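We were asked to recover a plausible sequence for a given structure. The inputs and outputs are reproduced exactly as logged, with field labels preserved.

PROBLEM: sequence recovery
POSITIONS: 388
GIVEN STRUCTURE:
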């Protein structure tokens, strides 16, 4: 019996695992070591239909649910979390266009994801960080065009992106736009803080916009509603971020288990020591719990049920479990666990980075607490009890 329960049908998982084993696993160490965007892996996954799973068939997708999407992120990240983080910036751009884009923008862009379009979700600015309510990047309407000027900073996947979703302030508020790399006035720069110690899928570049002219339909959704649209998109991607953490946790667990089962000390297998067994028992229970929550959150995306709550809970729990599992895996493996030739250092760096990237644990707790406040307020308004 397999240790990890399949949470979607095996007919989907088995070919996915073969593709990951062929196109992701062999590159995983080099991607992390060299800090490069995994172009070949991403294009290979797209070629097998995995970059557009939740798009409808008329948009070039498979029309599957988000549990299948979570399985993709978990399995890809079991081999390489850098590939997982590359897929997530593609999903973010895809999702905001699918949910809010004009029909003409959807027709033009969404089918490109199935052909391997690499995108970045470029929201951050140096002076504002996670606060995207007011921005230095500006967009001005000029006839049938928008003119964008500004700079986005620390952009994940930006070194290889072929297109970007960006936020800019217009006359009525923050708005979202779709920008292609080849447009006049678009360039990238690599600053002194471009490299991270985990989730290394290429340098985090600055995106420079110098009077970039966009067609009118490259405004995504309603002018002035960009913050709400971006946050809604993040509610989707947080569940997939949780799935990335699950992949990291499982890889660290399996690596440590293999070591403990094959290594002896004091005439006993490492795995036969009760203290080591307790480590594994705790890790297994925690990973199983995080997996169940994450796939429940994925199905909540399909049913549009309490998305912000379940996505935040899943990422909060899964990222913490991944970090704890990776740290204990290092401990179990002793000296081997801290060797650069072993993968446990990568697992630990990737896991810890995802307690911050894509919504820090503190931000997630705020979101969950806000949901509780709304629940209590609704109960009081209806004359009911808070816990009902």
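RECOVERED SEQUENCE:
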């Amino acid at each position: 019996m397999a240790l990890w329960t399949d949470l979607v049908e095996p007919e989907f998982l088995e070919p996915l695992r073969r593709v990951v084993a062929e196109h992701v696993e062999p590159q995983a160490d080099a991607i992390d070591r060299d800090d490069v965007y995994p172009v070949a892996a991403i294009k290979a996954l797209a070629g097998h239909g995995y970059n557009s799973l939740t798009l409808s068939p008329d948009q070039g997708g498979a029309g599957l649910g988000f549990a299948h999407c979570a399985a993709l992120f978990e399995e890809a990240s079991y081999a390489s979390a850098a590939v997982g983080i590359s897929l997530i910036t593609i999903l973010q751009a895809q999702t905001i266009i699918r949910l809010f884009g004009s029909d003409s923008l959807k027709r033009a862009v969404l089918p490109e994801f199935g052909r391997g379009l690499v995108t970045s979700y470029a929201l951050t600015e140096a002076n504002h960080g996670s606060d995207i309510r007011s921005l230095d990047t500006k967009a001005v309407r000029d006839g049938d065009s928008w003119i964008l000027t500004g700079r986005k900073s620390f952009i994940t996947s930006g070194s290889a992106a072929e297109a970007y979703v960006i936020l800019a302030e217009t006359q009525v508020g923050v708005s979202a736009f779709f920008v292609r790399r080849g447009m006049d006035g678009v360039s990238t720069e690599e600053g002194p803080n471009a490299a991270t110690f985990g989730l290394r899928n290429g340098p985090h570049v600055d995106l420079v916009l110098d009077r970039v002219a966009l067609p009118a339909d490259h405004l995504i959704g309603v002018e002035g509603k960009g913050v709400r649209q971006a946050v809604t998109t993040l509610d989707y991607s947080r569940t997939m971020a949780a799935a990335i953490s699950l992949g990291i946790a499982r890889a660290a667990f399996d690596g440590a288990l293999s070591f403990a089962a094959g290594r002896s000390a004091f005439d006993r297998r490492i795995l036969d020591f009760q203290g080591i067994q307790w480590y594994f028992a705790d890790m297994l229970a925690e990973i199983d719990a995080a997996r169940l929550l994450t796939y429940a959150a994925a199905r909540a995306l399909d049913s549009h049920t309490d998305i912000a709550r379940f996505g935040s809970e899943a990422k909060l729990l899964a990222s913490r479990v991944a970090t704890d599992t990776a740290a204990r895996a290092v401990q179990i493996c002793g000296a081997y666990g801290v060797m650069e030739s072993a993968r446990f250092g990568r697992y630990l760096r990737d896991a810890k980075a995802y307690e911050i990237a894509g919504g820090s644990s503190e931000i997630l707790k705020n979101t969950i607490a806000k949901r509780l406040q709304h629940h209590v307020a609704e109960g009081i308004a209806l004359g009911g009890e808070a816990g009902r």
